[in-house]
Amino acid sequence: MSSKPEQKETHQANGAVLPIVPMDCLTSPDRGQLVEPSDFLGPDGDGVEVVVLESRANAKGVREEDALLENGSQSNESDDTSTDRGPEPASPLKETSFSIGLQVLFPFLLAGFGTVAAGMVLDIVQHWDVFKYVTEVFILVPALLGLKGNLEMTLASRLSTAANIGQMDTPKELWRMITGNMALIQVQATVVGFLASIAAVIFGWIPDGHFSIDHAVLLCASSVATAFIASLVLGMIMIGVIIGSRKMGINPDNVATPIAASLGDLITLALLSGISWGLYKELESKAYVNPLVCAFFIALLPIWIIIAKKNAATREVLYSGWEPVIIAMAISSVGGLILDRTVSDPNFAGMAVFTPVINGVGGNLVAVQASRISTYLHMSGMPGESSETAPRKCPSPCSTFFSPDVNSRSARVLFLLVVPGHLVFLYTISSMQGGHTTLTLIFIVFYMTAALLQVLILLYIADWMVHWMWGRDLDPDNFSIPYLTALGDLIGTGLLALSFHVLWLIGDRDTDVGD
Asked: Cα(471)–Cα(468) distance, rounded to whole angstroms?
């Protein structure tokens, strides 16, 4: 047996066979010295050219995958060659806290002003006849506004991940992703809108025991029409935002989901108010209009199903993506029941303007975090694969908010945006004389406490839920955001209602209820 290192491959160059030697073999067994050059002399003493390959074992822990999304490329670089530290997982998103905050800030403020506008609209329309006499419409509000979390934000997260991993680089791939996903969200919007109306009827019937078939059909027609039109408009906006983000060198994960909500709340609430008001006006003279509206949108379902089934990227979601959106709709409807019971009391009518704001801000921030964590995991493998970046244990709050990794850094940045963001939004509402309330110091303290607690809980749940789903072979892009935004609606509405009740009991609320 030869004492020379074993040559597993050869390399042909200029008619000579050259040995390919692993880097490990160039060191002596004690790793202290390099192997002498004489070991690689030819039979007549002439030198033999050696092609050296770096060992994968030696490179483990010192190769870091650089996926700077600004240039859309990936490169390998050895940032640390120290042998004193153990292997570290790759960090796909090398972003500083400043860069994360800078990219998130503008979409966050834009989304926040969208929720402020939605709150002002709700503050006005709560006095319309359809909201007074068909109070179950209030139950539809969080459920339909939550569609941006169930559908548009999920679409944004799904397309952002596809863009970041190169699945939308060619026109053919881009068109395939657009058509399949648009058809998918139309199916989901129609079904979820129909189920949301049923939930509103049930939740409205349980406390009072009163049921009206005309009101039930009105709720169904309003919900289905609103969900369909809003999802169509917002889906097209999302596609444009993600394509534009990639061309501008911006991480779509940081901007797509907040922009999905910036106009989402306003468009959805305006559509719900206008459609329900118009159908309510036709209820007495043309009772057949409401059933026809329901039948029309439901009749379009087979077309969207066929288109979505033909696309491999959306076929799986079409079959398996119903559980999160339906459960999320039910969770949001519970929040809607809280809103209905609270706003119906004249003492708490001022809560209407703040509900879309606190729910929207919390949902926007947690959707950004969930989308970022999902992209981070997708860059290290596929759902269900064992990965150092996907811990299976429940994380501690310290690891979620205070560890040095990029996801913890983004969680801190997003949490720090809560107070300044809400101060701006509260000032805007006060300037526009919305909410039938005076912004006292104690009210701001209670409101900020509720907002901070909501986002703190949501970011922690997001860290656990995304990794939990990943470890069980579930794509977080399709499953996590609906649950998180629905929980945001429930937690936000519940904490806000609790704050209003406490403030009313201690006599600090200065309400001025009127038309």
From this structure: 5
Q: Where are the domains of the chain?
A: 94-125+344-383+390-514, 127-343
User: Angle between the 322-343 and 351-378 helix axes, to the nearest 10 degrees?
Assistant: 160
Give the span between the Cα atoms of 380 and 473, in whole angstroms: 14
Contact 215, 136 (CB under 8 A): yes
| Model confidence pTM above 0.85 | no
User: Beta-carbon neighbour count of residue 309 at 10 Å?
Assistant: 16
Report which of residues 41 and 372 the model is more confident about: 372
- The per-residue pLDDT for 94 is 63
**Alpha-carbon span 165 to 228, nearest angstrom:** 30
Residue 513 DSSP SS3: coil
Give the single-character DSSP code of 148: I
pLDDT, tens only, 249-270: 777 767 776 666 667 788 888 9
What is the residue-wise DSSP string for 93-129?
Answer: ----HHHHHHHHHHHHHHHHHHHHHHHHHHHHHTTSH
pLDDT at position 81 over 70:
no
Does the structural domain 94-125+344-383+390-514 have CATH classification 1.10.357?
A: yes
Largest CA distance in the chain: 107
303 or 23, higher pLDDT: 303
pLDDT tens-place string over residues 32-47? 444 444 444 454 555 4
Same fold, 94-125+344-383+390-514 and 127-343: yes
Cα first-last separation, the chain = 98
- What is the pLDDT of the chain when averaged over all its residues? 76
The position carrying tokens 């912004």 is 439
Phi, psi of 375 (to 5 degrees): -60, -40
Single out the residue of 493, 503, 514, 485 nearest to residue 152, CA to CA: 485
| CATH number of this structure's domain 127-343 | 1.10.357
